[in-house]
Amino acid sequence: MHTNTQPPPGERLVGCAALAAAVEPGQEGASAALASALAAEQRTSALVLALVGSDGGTAPAITIGEAIARLGVPAVRALTIALDLCVGECRSSVETRRWSRPLAQAFAARALCRQLGVGLPVEAFTVGLVQGFGPATLMRWKFPARLVQAVTPPGRERGFDPNEDESVDLARILGQASLLADSLCGDPSRSGIDWARASSGLESMREILELDRAAFAVLFERIGREWSEWQARLGLAAQPVPTLDEVHRRAGAIPADDEVVRALEAGSTATLKGLRILAVDDEPISLKLLERALRNAGHETITAVNGSEALRIALEQHPHAVIADWMMPEMDGIDLCKALRRSELGRSVFFLLLTGRGEEERIVEAFDAGVDDYVTKPFNPKVLLARLKGGQRVIELQERVEANRRVVLKQVAEMGLLTRKLRNAAHTDALTDLPNRRHAIGRLESEWESSDSATRPLSAILIDIDHFKKVNDTYGHDVGDFVLREVAVVLRANTRQGEEAARLGGEEFFVTCSNTTETQALVAAERLRAAVARHVINGMGFQGSVTISVGVAQRLPGMASHDALIKAADHAVYAAKAEGRNCVLAASAVSPVSKSA
Amino acid sequence: MRVIEGLRELGGTEDPGLLVEVIGMFLEDAPARLRELQMGFETKDIRLLERAAHSLKSASANVGATGLSDLCKRMEESARQRRSEGIAELLTESTRVWTEVEAALRSIRG
Q1: Which residues of A fall within a CB distance of 8 Å from B77?
Q2: How close B54 gets to chain A, by Cα (Å)?
Q3: Smallest Cα–Cα separation from A341: which of A360, A304, A366?
Q4: pLDDT at residue A326 is higher than 80
């Protein structure tokens, strides 16, 4: 809810962004409308091309039209809105600093996306750039659902999302990209940056990416370079770009406990030098003596004069040890200990109780409350320090357990991404990046389970490139592979919600159409056929276009399994070839004679 | 009678000022605690009495005034068990010992 009368930034889109936002993705003529929106703003279209051209595609995009064909209307539309907004605000020179970090995050997200082979890099860039606007704004801009979901904080109501895996991956990538952006933009004079966290975060990111240190440093440097170049391009004040080593070095000036954790993680047996100790006593002389004894022994000492103050400080400052008097008004030492033991942070703190004379007989009660050790007052500083030394071993052990626990938690969190990455690899065709046969068949099987020939139809489209053998024979396999990739890009860009294109192998592609009748699937198939025929392939000495023959089939009551559906579509492809190729045929229209042909 | 039975090596050689500082704190603080003891006894505020006795017990022990500390300990225990007998005597004795302790500490502080 905005209490502010001023519309939030990005509330009103202007110029090219507004034109792009008016484009309805999916509608007839959307590509042309988007292209003309971009033609209205040279700077933005130049940036779009620069970005798409360097997006690791098979060939640099030369025109906006090609960029749209390659990436699809929704992706280019979103990118246009984000970039035009950024260009506009940077030019107005009011909001220049605001875009520096988002830009770093955008390049980081794109690089991670490429490195992981998950999702579309250009989309990662887009959401990285405008994540700060929040899901509601992105939704208003009609960004693709998975992009909106990716910036929606977990736990918030997330509507049904058919691409949940993708948006979860993207959200994870954004999280990691944010860390990279922090590391890049971090101002060493600002204490707000937690360099230690950045450093250890980067190190675990390196492990997820399965890169050695040198390769990760190169990746980091490349992101920094891209960021820096674009800052200059957009007229933003140049910021020094740190190297990965510098980030790690800065992490040297870090709080004691993180240092310990890192030392322990590295398997080092270095002992804790000075502990951070919270001393609690309501009696000022005892407190003074305690504080002095601890300081003299080289420990960092914080004091509190009663239990409730101590509890607050302990939860804020995470001391290694608490030394508290037993008898105090309000909250006594035992209650303090019990309260700490109930909290996540207080569970591992070493708790030393000071007991007055006459209280020893009740010490069992103290141990029941979770006290680790006790010293009788008035204490002898040497005895106190000796007890503390014994406690130090416990503290180190606790730190080690805690460090291990953090490592495990971290690993559990990261395992998700890794598993997805591996699963993705197993389900992706290496040549075209489309889902592979295994994935397509699996998808069809599960759709088969949930479909029903009467109420929820299921259709399949089988595609075969015409005269592909001739391409291979004439130009060689490299060019053949190039053509396959180009066709894959066109298929991916022209499939819609509920349609999933996959490469079965060779020159054969497959589209599962969930909840789709044969008649509807025929429309989709024709869309794909026309798009492929229209697309000019230009590169590697090949110039021209290829055509496809397409067979469409719907699940019928008599079909025993998904195999029968594929077989029916396959028969239709044969019939389409016989019809002269570059056409679409429905299995229902194929006569039994030509079926057996 | 030695009221100060032994000052621990407060601050040691590194921090000779600590002894003086702590004695100063005690001399400043103790009269208030004694007044609280008296008031607690007179108004039958047993909680106040217990708390003041506890405080003075550890404070006096810290400066080596173990006799005074013992008296406070006995008062604290009586108060905790809600027994008022004997407290009047302990209180009188404490006030007497306090004057000796105060004199001894002032001479130490110089």
Answers
A1: 358
A2: 8
A3: A366
A4: yes
Distance (Å, whole) CA A256 – CA A395: 13
**B window 40-79, beta carbon within 8 A of A:** 51, 54-55, 57-59, 61-63, 69, 73, 76-77
Q: How far is A327 from chain B (nearest CA, A)?
A: 8
Query: How would DSSP label each residue in B35-67?
Result: HHHHHHHHTT-HHHHHHHHHHHHHHHHHTT-HH
Q: Which of A357, A378, A380 sits opposite B73 (nearest CB)?
A: A357
CB A255 within 8 A of CB A232: no
Distance CA A458, CA A452 (A): 8
- Tokens for A592, please give them: 């039994």
The answer to whether A142 and A25 are in contact (CB under 8 A) is yes
Cα–chain-centroid distance for residue B95?
Answer: 9
Look up residue A347 and give its two tokens. Answer: 């569970």
Give yes or no for residue A397 having a pLDDT over 80. Answer: no
State whether B73 and A358 contact (CB < 8 Å): yes
CB atoms within 10 A of CB B16: 11
Chain A nearest CA to B96, separation (Å): 22
Contacts of B26 (CB under 8 A, 6+ apart): A285, B59, B60, B62, B63, B105
Interchain pair A285, B63: CB under 8 A? yes
Q: Which residues contact A522 (CB under 8 A, 6 or more apart)?
A: A552, A584, A586
Min mean pLDDT across A314-323, A514-523, B88-97 is at A314-323
State the pLDDT at residue A90: 78
Amino acid code (one letter) for A28: E
Alpha-carbon gap, residue B14 to A542, rounded angstroms:
87
Between CA A49 and CA A58, with CA A54 as vertex, the angle to 5 degrees is 100
- Report pTM: 0.42
pLDDT at residue A404 tops 80:
no
